[in-house]
Write a structure and sequence with these properties.
Structural class of chain A: mainly alpha
Strand order of the largest sheet of chain A: 1-2
Radius of gyration of chain B: 21 Å
Shape of chain A: globular
CATH topology of chain B: Alkaline Phosphatase, subunit A
Number of helices of chain B: 13
Oligomer: heterodimer
Number of domains of chain B: 1
Helix content of chain B: 25-40%
Shape of chain B: globular
Radius of gyration of chain A: 24 Å
Structural class of chain B: alpha/beta
Helix content of chain A: 55-70%
CATH architecture of chain B: 3-Layer(aba) Sandwich
Number of helices of chain A: 25
Chain lengths: 457, 404
């Protein structure tokens, strides 16, 4: 098994396209990965920090409204409409990057790591997930895992999502002051547990309940608010040292550096290397990946201290990463690759607005079982193909494929040519026949998009 | 435990025996379900705090462990326990003997306190020691396997997810309210041709087409015989959130040939400000049960709803007005056919020495034992089946009979 341009485009990108040639070699893919991030510049998504004034204004208006200001409600409604549009614009930009990138492996890695560090927005910040991805995930997909881990775990949206924001050291000054006022404040284990179980060592990792608790104590002091973002408050931190996985952290005065120190160590733990290696192999290659591939990724992770660029190269260089297509595309990947195969341009999506984005993408993704930014829990979306091939989920894919001609501005290709454009030599004889036998162009294209050949990656 | 469990269609595809897919298995080959009783199984994802829902106010250690959460008045149950105020809409069911609970229950899952492994084990219905080659299907499906000759629509998994609990070799239906698939005859022929060599796709699309047709037919019939119960259903409380759509779909199906319906409700992971977040989720649970009672009408007397969660939560309130992952939890049961009006279970006590790992409610009974009693009572399943294939090696002799 060795490099093939078609497999490269389908397995490590968003499929074949009439507008982009598939990668010519692994070296070309690696070079693109280490080159400038043109797509982020072409289709920008503003960082979380830039949204803070909006949250401040929203919060002030809400207060004014509660205080009886009649004009506030109208302004609040206008802001919510603006937020809705901004939110779908971010989905449009994300899709546009997948359509315009010559080699969209960076886009695929960004989706993979965004899922690994799943956050869900809450309350006023419920539509900010892609801002988190832009801040904490995207800059690090070819950098160090420790850097990504620190950026993700201390991001305001993660602190909000996994309840770190209210966690207080039981022995802290703050807890004592609150107790005098009759309020109990203390520890919340949620973020500490999920960092160990999901983000780093995996549920089979060698950590104990006591490690979870000590780690949770070490994380105290990390807080967020929608006026300033993340703020480290030593008064809320548990005083003294904590022992996590056999090593002592912290000291007399709590500092953010102590949190960074423990994350730096967990990031390069052998169990983390194993967990990350397996997840990457499962995501990109197979639900049951070859052990040799997992071992190679784990070894590269350990040798380089978690250099994700090097680990990604190890994936591309490994012969067992080039076997026949074996994964089922997740709904987002299906939609992105269908648009790419149909030659849709990024700029066609960026101006669509909420209603059309809802019609073309948001509702269909829900019907396919993957409502955008709404996985059930912090473990993100399922990898195994069978999870996605439910009758209702497949019905969602077929319905979208059969009605794709309704997408504004789309020129429907001839199905006989489209089967080659979209799948090259990956199309079966049967599919080529069906493409010719359809009664209408739209049905022919729909059958190609709904086919098992196209659903694979 | 592996997250990569075989799903139902995957299993069917491998075994080559999907009821929905195979033209050989028409309704001629199947008998209708041999029972008239209805069982609804709800999975409460996220670990429901049983100690807040059914509060052991009679336990001397309770108030101290829950300084803010124990505050406020619950509704009287049996003198020792009170009911969370957000379940007030269900209190009349308790009075009528149609609502009950089993306290201090758990699956065999211990110590790691991971939602995802905990839920997998709850749905697999096995012990935690189930090694490779052990059952990789769900307990509700293994129950169906023990009753030969059922039709696929005897049991429904409802919602977008593929419920592991109903996954396995026995035919079962899987659908999400509101989904429809209609293809032109030619498109249908071509899709079937393209899917021919892909059994998982073929099984799924044929099931989708069949269910779409069935549901369209049932809805057309339903419009003709609109009756009082349907009206009552429309007036049931709550909006039309996904939980209500699933409950409504379950009712429609259970009024027909379906005998078992399963779906899940999320939102139970209350690490934070539980006093504010739990009532919302409990309100949804109350709405679901109220809708079923109204919608099923006379059939409610033949119905049992059991609601199970992956584990309980810490006895002591945490530092953010919530609770963290624990062990012993609570099961809820409702329905005209249930022996309600009781909180079942052996109470372990909340003194520190009585807790599991000095933090969690000590489980005193396996939650599967109650599920076994429900299936025994409703469907007449034998001890051999229940302790053999359905819940391997489970001893449920100590659990009370909970079906009238």
């Amino acid at each position: 098994m060795s490099f093939s341009p078609e497999i490269a485009a389908i397995r490590f990108g968003y499929g074949l396209s009439p507008r982009h040639a598939p990668p010519g070699s692994v070296a070309e893919m690696v070079a693109a990965l280490h080159g400038p991030d043109d797509m982020a510049a072409a289709f920008p998504i503003a960082p979380f920090a830039e949204r803070l004034p909006w949250y401040r204004e929203f919060s002030d208006l809400s207060k004014a409204r509660r205080a009886g200001d009649e004009t506030a409600l109208k302004k609040i409604k206008a802001m919510l409409v603006d937020d809705r549009e901004a939110h779908t614009d971010m989905l449009a930009a994300t899709l546009a990057r997948a359509l315009e990138a010559p080699h969209p492996l960076r886009e695929r890695l960004t989706r993979f790591w965004a899922d690994h560090f799943t956050v869900k927005g809450k309350g006023v910040a419920r539509k900010a997930v892609q801002r988190f991805v832009e801040d904490a995930i995207r800059p690090h997909v070819t950098g160090s895992f420790a850097a990504m881990l620190k950026a993700a775990v201390t991001h305001p949206l993660m602190l909000l999502y996994l309840d770190q924001n209210g966690s207080v050291g039981p022995g802290s000054n703050y807890a004592a002051r609150q107790a005098e006022r009759g309020k109990t404040r203390g520890l919340n284990e949620n973020l500490a547990r999920e960092v160990l179980e999901l983000h780093t060592m995996g549920v089979g990792g060698r950590y104990t309940q006591e490690d979870v608790r000590q780690f949770a104590e070490l994380l105290t002091g990390l807080t967020m608010n929608l006026r300033q973002g993340m703020v480290f408050r030593p008064r809320r931190a548990e005083p003294g040292e904590e022992e996590v996985l056999g090593k002592v952290y912290g000291g007399r005065k709590a500092r953010l550096e102590h949190v960074h120190a423990v994350l730096d160590d967990i990031a390069v733990h052998p169990d983390t290397a194993d967990h990350i290696a397996r997840k990457l192999a499962v995501h990109f290659v197979s639900d049951t990946p070859p052990e040799g591939l997992v071992a190679a990724l784990r070894a590269r992770f350990e040798e380089t201290g978690g250099d994700l660029g090097a680990v990604t190269e190890a994936l591309l260089e490994h012969p067992e990463a080039w076997g026949p297509l074996a994964k089922t595309k997740q709904p987002y990947d299906f939609l992105a690759s269908a648009c790419r195969a149909l030659g849709v341009e990024g700029r066609q999506l960026t101006g669509l607005g909420f209603r059309k984005m809802m019609l073309y993408f948001l509702r269909p993704m829900q019907a396919m079982g993957q409502p955008w930014e709404q996985p059930l829990g912090p473990d993100g979306w399922a990898e195994d193909g069978a999870h996605w091939l439910t009758p209702q989920g497949l019905a969602g894919r077929i319905n979208w494929a059969m009605s794709v001609s309704r997408v504004e501005g789309l020129s429907l290709p001839d199905p006989r040519r489209f089967v080659v454009t979209a799948l090259g030599r990956q199309a079966s004889e049967r599919l080529a026949f069906a493409a010719r036998a359809a009664e209408r162009e739209a049905e022919g294209v729909g059958i190609i998009l709904a086919s098992p050949d196209f659903q694979r990656r | 435990m592996s997250r990569l469990l075989l799903t139902r269609r995957n299993f069917l595809a491998t075994a080559g025996c999907s009821a929905a897919a195979s033209p050989l298995l028409t309704s001629m080959a199947f008998a209708a379900a041999p029972w008239d009783n209805r069982l609804v199984v709800l999975i409460l994802r996220g670990a429901m705090d049983g100690l807040d829902v059914v509060r052991p106010v009679g336990d001397p250690a309770f108030a101290a462990a829950r300084p803010t959460l124990a505050a406020g008045d619950g509704l009287a149950l049996d003198g020792f326990f009170t009911l969370h105020p957000a379940l007030a809409p269900l209190h009349p069911l308790w009075e009528a003997g149609e609502l009950g609970f089993a306290h201090a229950v758990s699956t065999p899952y211990r110590d790691r306190r991971s939602h995802f492994d905990g839920q997998d084990l709850l749905e697999a219905g096995t012990g935690f020691d189930a090694g490779e080659g052990a059952a990789r299907d769900g307990w509700l499906n293994r129950m169906l396997q023990a009753v030969p000759g059922l039709e696929a629509d005897t049991a429904y998994a409802i919602g977008q997810e593929d419920l592991l609990m109903l996954t396995g070799a026995a035919p079962a239906a899987n659908w999400s309210p509101g989904t429809r698939l209609a293809l032109s005859p030619q498109a249908r022929r071509l899709i079937e041709m393209v899917y021919e060599e892909h059994p998982a796709y073929r099984a799924a699309v044929l099931e989708a087409l069949t269910l779409s047709e069935d549901i369209a037919a049932a809805e057309a019939a339903g419009r003709e015989v609109e009756d009082g119960e349907m009206d009552a259903m429309m007036q049931a409380p709550g909006g039309k959130g996904a939980h209500m759509q699933m409950a409504e779909f379950a009712v429609q199906r259970l009024r027909g040939d379906t005998r078992i319906a399963a779906f899940s409700l999320g939102g139970w992971d209350t690490h934070n400000t539980q006093a504010r977040t739990l009532p919302r989720t409990l309100g949804q649970l109350a709405d679901v049960i109220s809708l079923m009672r109204a919608g099923l009408g006379p059939l409610w007397g033949k119905t049992g709803v059991i609601a199970m969660t992956e584990f309980g939560r810490t006895v002591r309130e945490n530092g953010t007005g919530g609770t963290d992952h624990g062990t012993g939890g609570l099961m809820l049961m409702a329905g005209g056919a249930m022996k309600g009006g009781q909180v079942y279970g052996r109470w372990p006590g909340l003194a520190e020495a009585d807790l599991y790992a000095r933090r969690d409610l000590m489980p005193t009974e396996d939650v599967r034992a109650y599920a076994a009693r429900a299936m025994e009572g409703f469907f007449g399943l034998s001890r051999e089946a229940l302790s053999g294939s359905v819940f391997p090696r489970l001893d449920y002799a100590g659990a009370p009979r909970i079906v009238l």
